[in-house]
Design brief:
By secondary structure, this protein is mainly alpha-helical. It is built from 21 helices and no strands. The N and C termini lie far apart (47 Å).
C-alpha cells in the first residue's frame, strides 16, 4: 500500500527540485569527465602522437569544446531541462533527431561508465599491493563500488554533489601534486628525465614529427562528459543561469588542467619508459619520483576518478531517462519521482542494473573482451556526435538572430558552425583510423537507436512526442531582452 501511495504522490509532484548551487553543478560536470582516469589513459598515447606537443593540441581542442559549452549555456537559458541536448534538438530541429540524440547520450554515458569501472579494481589492488589481475577481487570491488554509487545517486543530488566534492579535492590534490613533483624532478635534470624543449610549444611537436589529427583524437576523449552539468539543471538553483555557467567553467578548467598536467608529467621519464608503462603511467611516474608510496598515491587518484565518474554517470543517466520520459519519448514509469528522495529512482536503477550485468559479463567471459574494446573505442565518437547535434540546435533555435546583426551572425551562426565542422572532421579522422569492428559497432548502436525510436513512435505516448512542433527564438523586444538576462 505504501508503494502505491508513493507512486501516486510521485506522479502528482513529478518535478525535480533545486537542491544544489553552482559549485555542486560544476563538480558534477568535472567528475563526469573523469579527469584523473582520462589523463592516465591518454598520457602516453597523446605524448607519442603529438611528439610531445600535447599541451598546445589540448588547448586547441578546448576551443571547439568551449564553443559547444557556450551553446549549452545559451540553450539552457532558453529551456533548463534534464534532457538537455535531447530536448533542445527535438524542439528546435526534429523530435526524431532529438530522440536519437537522447539515445546517443544514454549509450555514451553507459558505455563510459562500464569502461571506467573496469580500470577501478586494478588501481585499488595496485594501491594495496595485490595481484591486479585476480578475477574475483576485480568483480567484488567493481560491483561494490557500483552498488554504492547507484545508491548515492538514488538518495539524492545533494548527497551526490557533496560526495563528488570530497572525491574531487583528494583526486585533484594528488594529480596536481604529482604534476608539480614531476616538474621539479625534470627541472633538476635527474637521470632518465626528458626536459622540455621549444617543440613542446608547437602543434606539430618536436621536429615537426607530431600528428595534429591523431593528437586531437586523444584530446577529444579527454574532454567528453563535461556536459553532465546540464543534465542536473532542474535540480540547480537558478536553473537557467548556473548550469550554463558550470559547463563553461568545467571546459575552461579541464583545458588548463589537462594541458598543464600533461606537459608536466610527460617529461618525468624517458619516452621509451613512458610508452613501456602506458597502461598505468601515473602510477609509474609516481613510483619513479617518490617510490612505492607515491606510486600508490597516484593509483589512488585514478581510482577516485573512476569512482567519481561512475557516480556522476548514474546521476546523469537517471536525469536523461527522466527528461526523455517526461516528454513521452520513453515509458512514463521512468518519469516517476520518489516522494522520499525526489529522484527518478527507476530511471537510475535500470541503467545501474544493466551496468552491473555488463561489468560481470565482461570480467567473467574473456571471449567478449574484443567486442567490448570496440564498444569502448567508439565512446568518444558518440559524445562528439551529440555535441555536433547540439551546435545544430543552437543554430536552428537562434536562426533569426543570425541575420539580425553582425554579432548574431558570428555568435549564433559562424562559431557554432565552425565548431561543428571541426568536431565533424575529428570524427572523420577517427573513423578512418578505427578498426572496422569499431566502426561497425558505432553503426550498430545508431541502428539499434533507430529501431527503438520506431518502436516508441508506434506507442500512443510516442506519437504525441513525435508530433512536437519546432520552436525558434523570437526577436521581439521583450523576448530578446529576457533571453539576454538569462544568458548572463
Amino acid at each position: 500500500m505504501t508503494a502505491s501511495v508513493d507512486e501516486l504522490g510521485a506522479r502528482e509532484t513529478n518535478k525535480l527540485s533545486p537542491r544544489i548551487g553552482l559549485a555542486g553543478d560544476w563538480v558534477i560536470g568535472a567528475a563526469n569527465a573523469g579527469p584523473g582516469l582520462s589523463l592516465s589513459v591518454t598520457l602516453a598515447a597523446i605524448a607519442a602522437a603529438t611528439a610531445y606537443g600535447s599541451g598546445p593540441v589540448i588547448l586547441l581542442c578546448a576551443v571547439p569544446m568551449l564553443i559547444v559549452a557556450a551553446a549549452y549555456r545559451r540553450l539552457n537559458a532558453w529551456n533548463a531541462n534534464s534532457g538537455a541536448a535531447f530536448d533542445w534538438v527535438g524542439r528546435s530541429i526534429s523530435p526524431y533527431l532529438g530522440w536519437l540524440t537522447g539515445w546517443l547520450m544514454i549509450m555514451a554515458n553507459l558505455i563510459g561508465n562500464v569502461a571506467a569501472v573496469t580500470v577501478l579494481a586494478p588501481s585499488v589492488l595496485a594501491v594495496a599491493g595485490q595481484d591486479q589481475s585476480a578475477r574475483w577481487p576485480n568483480i567484488f570491488i567493481d560491483t561494490g563500488v557500483g552498488v554504492v554509487m547507484i545508491g548515492i545517486a538514488v538518495i539524492g543530488i545533494r548527497l551526490s554533489a557533496r560526495t563528488q566534492i570530497v572525491l574531487a579535492v583528494v583526486e585533484y590534490g594528488i594529480v596536481i601534486g604529482l604534476a608539480i613533483a614531476a616538474t621539479v624532478f625534470w627541472a633538476g635534470h635527474h637521470a632518465g628525465t626528458y626536459p622540455p624543449s621549444t617543440g613542446w610549444l608547437s602543434l606539430n611537436g618536436i621536429g615537426g614529427k607530431g600528428s595534429l589529427s591523431a593528437g586531437l583524437l586523444f584530446a577529444v576523449f579527454m574532454f567528453v562528459g563535461w556536459d553532465g552539468s546540464a543534465n542536473v539543471s532542474e535540480e540547480t538553483h537558478r536553473p537557467r543561469v548556473n548550469p550554463g555557467r558550470a559547463v563553461v567553467l568545467v571546459v575552461v578548467f579541464l583545458g588548463l588542467f589537462y594541458a598543464l598536467s600533461t606537459m608536466a608529467l610527460q617529461g618525468a621519464v624517458s619516452p621509451h619508459a613512458l610508452q613501456a608503462n602506458a597502461a598505468a603511467p601515473l602510477v609509474y611516474i609516481g613510483h619513479v619520483i617518490g617510490g612505492t608510496w607515491l606510486g600508490r598515491l597516484a593509483g589512488l587518484a585514478v581510482a577516485l576518478s573512476v569512482v567519481a565518474g561512475t557516480g556522476t554517470g548514474f546521476v546523469v543517466l537517471g536525469r536523461i531517462g527522466f527528461g526523455m520520459s517526461s516528454t513521452g519519448a520513453l515509458p512514463a514509469s521512468l518519469g516517476n519521482l520518489s516522494t522520499r528522495f525526489g529522484t527518478p529512482v527507476l530511471a537510475t536503477i535500470i541503467p545501474g542494473a544493466l551496468f552491473l550485468v555488463v561489468t560481470w559479463v565482461y570480467l567473467l567471459v574473456g571471449s567478449i573482451a574484443g567486442a567490448f574494446s570496440a564498444l569502448v573505442a567508439g565512446t568518444g565518437i558518440l559524445f562528439t556526435l551529440y555535441y555536433i547535434l547540439t551546435e545544430a540546435a543552437m543554430i536552428a533555435y537562434y536562426r533569426r538572430r543570425i541575420f539580425s546583426s553582425p554579432v548574431g551572425a558570428v555568435a549564433d551562426g559562424l562559431l557554432p558552425l565552425a565548431a561543428a565542422a571541426f568536431l565533424g572532421w575529428i570524427i572523420y579522422k577517427a573513423l578512418a583510423a578505427n578498426a572496422a569492428n569499431v566502426n561497425w559497432t558505432i553503426a550498430g548502436i545508431i541502428g539499434a537507436g533507430i529501431v527503438l525510436m520506431i518502436a516508441v513512435r508506434l506507442t500512443p505516448r510516442g506519437a504525441d512526442y513525435f508530433a512536437t512542433r519546432r520552436e525558434a527564438h523570437q526577436l521581439a523586444e521583450g523576448s530578446d531582452s529576457l533571453s539576454r538576462r538569462h544568458a548572463r
